[in-house]
Amino acid sequence: MVTVIITTYKRNPEIVLRSVKSVCVQSYDNLEIIIIDDSPSDFENRKAVCQAIQDINDTRITYLQNERNIGACASRNKAIVMAHGEYILYVDDDDELLENCVEKRLEKFKNDRIGLVYSDCYVYDEISGEKTRTNQEKHQGMSFDTLILNNYIYAFPMVRKCCYASCGMFDIKMPAAQDYEMWLRIAKKYEIDYVDEPLAIVHLHKGERISTNTQKKLNGLVLLNEINQEYLKKHR
Predict the structure, then answer these.
(1) N or C, which end of the chain is more exposed by having fewer CB within 10 Å?
(2) How far, in Å, are 27, 72, 95, 99 from residue 60 at the CA level?
(3) Long-range contacts for 230-236 (Cβ within 8 Å, ≥24 apart)?
(4) From CA 35, how far away is CA 21, in angstroms rounded?
């Protein structure tokens, strides 16, 4: 089983549905889909989002609402603890997976040493209408030395669930770069692999995203350097 986690925060129902439906139609169907709604209780579309997800009528979906806003990382951690899948993949509530994303990623877990599998993705600018493919670096095996130089793991890697037990969960103290910090921890202990094709679509829009908040990004990277200070001093 693969557990797909979607955390949502103050999104319109149609945007969340786009993400959820992209998971429901995956070519690999042994899925558990956990949706954590982290919107505040007074968010005007909260009930509409809940109803829209219920209307999908897919028994693989578990939908939960946090009593209070706890943040994306804490919500992901909550879902990871609940997850029954041997593999975990999360999707942002405003992005989507391509139909064979889960199947293609799963094929790459050849042995127990591989902890994470990533791929390229398409980036769609909803303002300009431009659609581009990410051209990431591609690395296999033990890859911490390359990953700390540049985060080439984009949207959305699949992780063997046991990695979270051995490497820890998402750090809720990180203001940004939480994913990057998590992938670095995994890369210290496990091999990684990749699928050399786009398997997801990231949507750029005017809505709220941590990735467009410059100060949060800066603060996150400063903290990331502090966490890895011992390695960075030895590897200038």
Answers:
(1) C
(2) 14, 21, 20, 17
(3) 231/148, 232/148, 235/145
(4) 12
Beta bridge partners of 62: 34
Measured distance CA(183)–CA(168) in Å, rounded: 11
Bridge partners for 119 per DSSP: 195
Task: Read off φ and ψ for residue 194, nearest 5 degrees.
Answer: -145, 160
Helix/strand/coil for 103:
helix
Predicted local distance difference test score (pLDDT) of residue 158: 98
Could you report how far apart the first and last alpha carbons of the chain are, in Å? 42
Residue 207's pLDDT is 60
Mean pLDDT per 10-residue section of the chain, whose length is 236 residues: 97 97 98 97 96 97 96 96 98 97 96 96 93 92 97 94 98 94 98 97 74 83 96 94
Q: Are 201 and 96 in contact (CB under 8 A)?
A: yes
